[in-house]
Structure formats: structure tokens, C-alpha cells
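Record type: monomer structure entry
Structure origin: computed from sequence
Chain ID: A
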Amino acid sequence: MIFTLILLFIIPFITLPLSLVSGKSSYYFGIVFTISEAALMILLMANIYSIPAFTAGKFNLILTGVAVPFLFIILVVELMVYIFSLFYIPDDRRLAFFVGLTVSSIDSVLLSGNIILFLMFWESMTISGYLLIGYKKETKAYPPFVFISFGELSTIFLIIGFAAYYVSTGSLLLGGVLNNPYILLIIILGFTFKMGIVPLQMVEWLPIAHGNSPTSGSILFSAAMTTLALYGIVQFVVSSASSFALGLILMLVGAFSLVFGSIFALSSENSKMLPAYSTVENSGAMIILVGLLIVWKGMNDPTMMAFVLLGILVYATAHAWAKSSIFILSGISESHDMNSINTSGLSSYARFSAGISAISLMGLAPLGGGIGEWLLLESLFISSISANLIFAVVAIVTGSIAALGAGIAIPTFTKYFNFTSRKGNGSNDGFKIGIPISISGTIILGITVLAPAFIYMYSYFIGNIPLFATHTIFLSNLKGIIFPFLIFSPAKSGFFGFLSPPFDILFIGVTAIVVSFIARGKERKIPIWNGGIEQGEQLNSFAYANTLRIILKKVYFSKEEREGSRYHERTFDIFWILIIDLTRLYSRFSSRFGRFVMNGNINRYVQYIIIALFVVLIMVVV
């Protein structure tokens, strides 16, 4: 048993030499090890099995606490990647190598027991991601460099934060008690660079990098890497002292990330950048939950802490798995223009699976995304009746913004599903993703059917973490629904529940059948509303979101332009305009400062050195 962690650490790396021989062999091996390790994670969460830590000098491996459920979530994502890769470009050995290297780095971060190993594999993940984006010679240099630039920015913040963590705790091991909220903020900033939240989404680096990656890379970036960044934040939050102000800041930052991510996702015309913007939205939702966890931890309420952490795990599970499935759907065509995608060859069940994934990302019941959305909003509702007025007000504001963003996600993925799963005349590209999308959709559906089991497993596991020390299982038999088919929340004014997902499926299914039978033969056609632009025989992707562009002109910075006798809406990106203006301002400032200070005048240099020396001496003395 003592070498179990060594095996878990080594096994993912076996795909690397296998990929040099055959891409398919590495993918088949990846499928076997991800299924096996995911099953092991379930045993660990059920407390049926335990794995001791492994230490050899500074080489510390450990798999306890929140790392276990996060590794389980990511292993299922990796399983989908390996299955999809068998049908995508199975014979490309270089792509297989880069996929294996990225997967191995991600898994190694979760097994790292000290900050040195953590940082080393975090950097390895960034470099392998850069190689994965730019593995094709025809790929433009811009997207890979955008990815690695922000990846290195993340690493810089983590180096500074980890160094301060070592000074503060006196230990390299993860899990040390960090009492300085400023150090925790620096570490959190390092992780949020991987999630693209406000203000980092202003430069759209995440959609640019993820949208230009091969599909297997897009899945790993949007579903696995963002989940890993969330793990890093939760890991340090759980072991650190609470900061009320930091929790409130994260709630507000998460809310604005959620709403802006959803707005730009709806208007996107690219089948890979749309779900990438959606990742910004979902990352914002999870950051809100982290903020709530910090605040409730400061209030010393273990039941609410457990409920919020349950929300983080369920939301992360639903997002990662559904986003993997959606990116598989985007791999149906090399053309990412949603108006030109043809899905001939996609089976009826594959289309159903794609619909299941889209509905989950809409945050609708009874799918996993709906449960996660309910846990998020219910946590905010409970917080809004807190005795702390500031916390209550921030919870109300955050909840209002989050609800708006969640509402926009519904038309976003209605549009996405409509334009990426409709039949047309052309090639049978649907065959290459039919099996992967069917398997991924079945996994998403499994979250719904087995929702009580997931809630029980996560609740039970959270109760075994010493910080929480509460074995509240958030399942009940209230409202006439038998245990364990009602998910409930510990509301201060009583219990409020979320109806059983299996019950919802039965109710919705029967209702749909009855309505379909009654309405049969009574179809009627109406003129097409083309979103305020020129009429066409079909509603195109741009027209679908044009109403929102018109309403949010100040956000999209759009204006009407004329070409001859035709008018159309041109949308500018206000965030890029802001960045460009700031860059020009900084450039002018640097030029003037350089001419004034660094002008070759020896007297100016001496003055500069003397002033700098005095400033340093004052800082040291103080």
C-alpha cells in the first residue's frame, strides 16, 4: 500500500513512451488507467480504502482532502479526451504525446504534497499546453504565445505567493495554516489567471487560446485546467485563516465574470470560442462559491461550509463533464463557423446526448448543471438573510447578477445546440464524433440519474474532512418524497429542497409525450424574426444574438454602419479598445519618462541612484 501513490504518479506517464510507438496504444492505455483510478477515487471518498503519503526527502506525494474529489472529476474528463482522441486523429503520435504530457502534469499537481512539486508540475502543465496549442505547423504563433504568456503570469504570482507561504508557515508542505490574507490573495490571483475571470477576461486570452487548440486540448484546457485551478484555490482556502473582505471581493469578482462571460458567449459565432467564453462564466460561478466558503468559514458555521463546498464539487463536476462533451461536439468540423457546420452522420442518440450536455450547461433541472446552479443560488439566498448586513447586501447583489448571467446561458446553448447539431447536405463528419458524444452524453445523464448517490458521496466525504467535522447528508424525505430523492439546504428559516432529478425526468418525459400527442398535426408557421437584420430563409447565428447586441450597445460597443444601401450592426470589443488605449497611454508615458530620466545625463543618473538608495534605506529601517 505504501507504493500506491508512486504507482498513481507513474502510470499516467506511461502514455508518453507508448505514444512514440502508436497514438492509439497510448489512448487505449489512457482509457484503462482513467477508469481504474476513477473507481479508486470513489473508494477513497466512501472511506473504504485509504492511501498513506509517500515521502523521500523533498519528494512528497499525498492524496487526501479535497484533492480526492477533484482528481475524480478530472479523471473522467481525461477519459473523455482519450475516447475522443481515438476517433479524432488517432495516428498522430506527436499530438498523442502532448496530450499524455498535459494529462500527466495535471494529475501530478493533484498528487503533489509540497509547494515545490506543485509549482514544478504546474509549470510543466503550462508548457505542455503551449505545445499542444501550437503542435500544427499551420497554427498561427499568436494563440500559443497568448496561452503561455498568461500561464507564466500565473506561475510568477504562484512563485511569489508560495515563497511568502513558506516564510509565513515555515513549511514547504501543503496544508500549513496561512494567517496572512494578503498572501492568500496573491496565491488565489495566481490560480485565477488560468480561469480567465475579471479582469483577465478583458483581454479574452482564454477564448483565444482554447478556441485555437486541437479539440482534445480545448477539452483539457476548459474542463481540466480550470478545475485544477479551482482545486488550488480551495486547497489553500480550506487550510488558511478566513478573511471576510477577501470572501466578499471574490463573490463580486465572480459575479461580474459570470455575467460578462455569458454575454460574450451568446454573441460568439465560433463553435469553440463560445464554450470557452462559457468557461469564463462557469469559473465566475465557482469563484462566487469560494467567496461564500471563505465568509461562512469566518462565521464558524460548519453546516453552511459543508453545503457551499458541496456546491463547489457538484458545480465543478457538472461543468467539467458537460463542457468536455460540448467541445467534443465542436470537433465535428474543422470549420468553426456555426452557420456552416454540417452534422450529417450523427445518430439520433448522439444528437440526444449533445442536447443533454447543452441543457446541463444551461443550468436547467434536472441535469447536473441545474443542481449546481440551484446549490449556487440557494447558498446566496441563505447568505442574504445573514445577520451581517454587509454580507447580506453583497449576497443579494451577487445573486441578482448571477441569476442574470445564468438566464443568458439558456439562449446561449439553445443557439449552440441548434447550429451544431442540425442536419444538412454534405460530408458525414458526424461519424467521427458519434461514439464519443454518445458516451459523454451518457455520463452527463448519469449525473442526473445518480444525483442522490453523488450528493451522498460528496456529503459523506466532506464530513470526513477535519475542518468541517459535520456529517450532514444533504438528502431528505421532506415534501412527501422518499429518502434519498430530495436534496435540501440548511436554510435558517427551515428546510428548502430541490426535487428529485429522477422524478423530474419522469414528469418532464410524460408531459412531453402527452403534449406531443395532443398537438400532433397542429403545427403553424410564422414569419422569421431575424434579430433586427435583413430577413433570410433561416435564422442565422449572428441574428440569433443580435437583439442582445442592440440592447447592450454600451457593453458590446456596437454601432450601425452603412455599406451602399444596406445597413448592418458592427460590434467592437470594448475590452480590447480599453486595453489598446491603456497600452498607448503607457507607451507615451514610458517614452516621455525615458527622455526625461534616462537621457544620457550623468547628473540625472547620480540623482536617481541617490534617491533610490535613500528609499531602500528608509524601507529597511521601517
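Annotation 1: The beta strands are 54-56, 59-61, 475-476, 486-489, 496-498, 558-563, 566-571.
Annotation 2: The chain has 23 helices and seven strands.
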